Amino acid sequence: xxxxxxxxxxxxxxxxxxxxxxxxxxxxxxxxxxxxxxxxxxxxxxxxxxxxxxxxxxxxxxxxxxxxxxxxxxxxxxxxxxxxxxxxxxxxxxxxxxxxxxxxxxxxxxxxxxxxxxxxxxxxxxxxxxxxxxxxxxxxxxxxxxxxxxxxxxxxxxxxxxxxxxxxxxxxxxxxxxxxxxxxxxxxxxxxxxxxxxxxxxxxxxxxxxxxxxxxxxxxxxxxxxxxxxxxxxxxxxxxxxxxxxxxxxxxxxxxxxxxxxxxxxxxxxxxxxxxxxxxxxxxxxxxxxxxxxxxxxxxxxxxxxxxxxxxxxxxxxxxxxxxxxxxxxxxxxxxxxxxxxxxxxxxxxxxxxxxxxxxxxxxxxxxxxxxxxxxxxxxxxxxxxxxxxxxxxxxxxxxxxxxxxxxxxxxxxxxxxxxxxxxxxxxxxxxxxxxxxxxxxxxxxxxxxxxxxxxxxxxxxxxxxxxxxx
Length: 471
Known about the structure:
About 40% of the residues lie in helices and about 10% in strands. It has helices at about 5-20, 70-75, 90-105, 120-135, 145-155, 235-255, 280-305, 310-330, 330-340, 360-365, 370-375, 380-390, 405-415, 435-440, 445-450, 455-465, and strands at about 55-60, 80-85, 105-110, 135-140, 185-190, 200-205, 210-215, 225. A 6-stranded parallel β-sheet has the order 1-8-5-4-2-3, with helices on both faces. Helix 6 runs parallel beside helix 8 (about 310-330) and helix 9 crosses helix 14 (about 435-440).
């Protein structure tokens, strides 16, 4: 590493150690800029008393993607930015989209250089393309990487004077709230995992920090998510598995997150209320329903790619869990996953057509899930037991003190049945990597502070240690 690069990393780490309030409200991108933020110790620690629900419009139906051209025509769009990746650009979903646009005689340009598991560098490429194109609408066709990249391109093209870190979550970025509007964005998901078509979040790898972070604002939400089960036919087995585990953890983490009314401090202005608010009665409904679908269809969807019923329902489960976690949030599985994925060494997941080492997002998330839910269960054992029961465990005689083991075993059974790698060791990590993994997790206040159980640095060390092997 060059001396200049080393100095940049050291400066960034100082920011991580000192910047920003550490409460879940103000660590979000909805909080005030660092320079204007009061220390929590000077504010009243009143608990939250309200929650908000936000979600994209969702349209579901077999073959419904063919309507997207009419949607843009109805919006009066004149110049559309179509965002995808190299693989999806060659598959039928992309052909359907382009045919629909051409039938309506709409002008468009295609950006197909999205990186699977995007970085700040790949985001900036898309942003540069968008800023030069003078687009009045956006269309994302792909998985979460594509949709998140499209959200970022739209945001920064609409804010041409902004620097990249302006809207990135504190403490990595400045966490400046998005106060203006963006152009209409329609998302066509082709995987059953991220639920990005429903949320106002865009996640990327920060290359110097070697950890994931992101941008969070309700403004980023797509205007419309077109959930077309036909596209699920083209997911390879491993992509179906890993993206499905992302759905599973979205539902479990949002349901077991700190209750919204326990979050402190109460925001002094509604614009400071985070998108990730903690578990709440409406998110609970979506998350629990997603878990019921997962229990019935997840194994089938992975093990038999021709089981259209199963894959269609997992596509819906992804959207349902997206609505749940998009308003409640996630916590430790996701917070720890950002370091796991960001610090990848040589591991390259099977069936991912990429030219770089990669731990797919869903795989990085589920690797710590058994350890995490054993840790968090004491804070809300009833919820952990209920989730375990929905996922197929007989919880008739499970005691409160055994709630964590019950849910962890349920998750572990899914992992074993769907042939998930045996822990972080299988991804190339050793115990010597734990300090770096912990260091990469500590800045993730946006999600780790939503853990229902208080977390100290030593707890992270233990959770990573317990996640080295799963079975």
